[in-house]
Amino acid sequence: MRHPRNSNLPEAKLLPTLKTIEVHFNADLQAKLDKLATETGRATGELVEDVVAGYFDVLAQTREMLNGRYDDLKSGRVKAIDGEEFFDSLRRREDELLKNHSTQ
Q: How far is CA 20 from the centre of its chain?
């Protein structure tokens, strides 16, 4: 089951195109990119393509995970918890651990 708000939308498809774009980086980032290119023997453009492709892969995985979590909440497979209640519980457990550690 997909996220209901996305159910009527067509799935995005990436079509390979041969376009060149120019990207400008600040001096520090450009220096890091140039250094990595020198160390690896790869062109800076290839490195940037790899980084962007990796970013999109991570973004797609994150979106899939979040959609799954949303589906789990909506279906009732998991129950949402109150944030304040969670952090209070976490603080109590931390206090207990610190108390037990200091008595040893």
A: 27
**Cβ distance 2 to 67 under 8 Å?**
yes
Residues 43, 37 contacting (CB under 8 angstroms): yes
Q: What is the rounded CA–CA span in Å between residue 33 and residue 58?
A: 21
Q: What is the pTM of this model?
A: 0.53
Q: Please tell me the total number of residues recorded for the chain in this structure.
A: 104
Q: Three-class SS of residue 48?
A: helix
8-46: b (≥16 Cβ within 10 Å) or e? eeeeeeeeeeeeeeeeeeeeeeeeebeeebeeeeeeeee
More confident residue, 1 or 48: 48
